[in-house]
Write a structure and sequence with these properties.
4 helices; 17% strand; alpha+beta
Amino acid sequence: MRREGESEKKRRLRLVVCPVLALKHGVKLKYWVEVQPGDTRKEEIARAIRKILLEQAEKHGEREEIEEELSLDKLLQVLPPGKASIKT
């Protein structure tokens, strides 16, 4: 999840998909999950990603804000085709 603008009055979190290499080149993400090819169906991966991101957000008191933005449909749209796994 990336914070769009840093205005305290109008903070908005949005779902961003980028290669891990982008993190090394200055892309700043507050919450993130790394996905790799694997054996788990896309729907299960989407549920797991949502759970992880919501747990991360809860630690910062932003769960409700993210919960609205982070639907399973949105995650399914941005995940690559095929099966995957979450890199730990």
